[in-house]
Automatic annotation (TrEMBL):
Protein's organism: Acidisarcina polymorpha
Keyword Glycosyltransferase set for record: no
InterPro entries: Enoyl-ACP_Rdtase_NADH, NAD(P)-bd_dom_sf, SDR_fam
Designated name of the protein: Enoyl-[acyl-carrier-protein] reductase [NADH]
Catalytic residues as annotated in Swiss-Prot or TrEMBL: 145, 155
Length: 255
């Protein structure tokens, strides 16, 4: 196990025990990282408190990433408590349910805006808040999906948002590299998370993935957590602007 004692990470996007954010938090905590974890709203508070209780020393913060005032408040609190940051994890994605059920051509203007605001712009806003605290350099990690590159039925506007997210990773990497801050995305295979439940054909996606992936199976949250630990560590100090696939090899297959 990597030893990252003395480093501080903030993880955004905790929903429940199936969250990729939770798997990443567990890996970072096991490596000795001082951990701050953010959840969205009061509805998720109880589950978040129960989970964080399993990680001694971890602190919990509420933050709605669509509200600039919330983001400003959280980073002020993080600065006061920790002084500096080394790792930011952005595990956030959302589109209104109707946008995932209807044909893509019926995507509404408001649904498009919400998907990009919550899923993409939030990475820019959080990176802007974190960068001044990364005085020793740092690693920013977000979560994407292969639907950014290829069409998956009913993934719809989230595929377009993930494509924008991956472009955002590259532009942020170029902007922040001079501060020794790396920005990367993990493209995970389909996983049964709270967010994924909004995809109408998730079970079909999981079966197709396992059938076609070179490893012949689906991906587990802990495996994504392991990749995030690598990107948070000094093993990846020359890696930035990249999309790192954790999908059992599915993306390399043409047929």
């Amino acid at each position: 196990m990597l030893n990252l004692e003395g480093r501080t990470a903030v993880v955004f996007g905790l929903a429940n025990k199936r969250s990729i954010a939770w798997a990443i938090a567990q890996k970072l905590h096991a490596a000795g990282v001082n951990l701050a974890i953010s959840y969205q709203n009061e509805r998720l508070r109880a589950d978040a408190e129960d989970l964080v209780a399993e990680l001694p020393g971890a602190q919990l913060f509420q933050c709605d990433v669509s509200a600039d005032a919330d983001i400003d408040r959280v980073f002020a609190e993080l600065k006061e408590r920790y002084g500096k940051l080394h790792v930011l994890v952005h595990s956030i994605g959302f589109a209104p349910a109707d946008e995932m059920k209807n044909d893509f051509v019926l995507t509404s203007r408001e649904g498009f805006r919400i998907a990009h605001d919550v899923s993409v712009y939030s990475l820019i806003a959080l990176s802007r808040g974190a960068a001044p605290l990364m005085t020793e350099g740092g690693s920013i990690i977000t979560l994407t999906y292969y639907g950014a590159e290829k069409v998956f039925p009913r993934y719809n506007v989230m595929g377009v948002a993930k494509a924008a997210l991956e472009a955002t990773v590259r532009y942020l990497a170029a902007d922040l590299g001079r501060k020794n801050i790396r920005v990367n995305a993990i493209s995970a295979g389909p996983i049964k998370t709270l967010a994924a439940r909004g995809i109408g054909n998730l079970s079909e996606m999981l079966k197709a993935h396992a059938d076609r992936a070179p490893l012949g199976r689906n991906v587990e949250q802990a495996e994504v957590g392991g990749a995030a630990l690598y990107l948070a560590s000094d093993l990846s100090t020359a890696v930035t602007g990249e999309v790192h696939y954790v999908d059992a090899g599915y993306n390399v297959m043409g047929f």
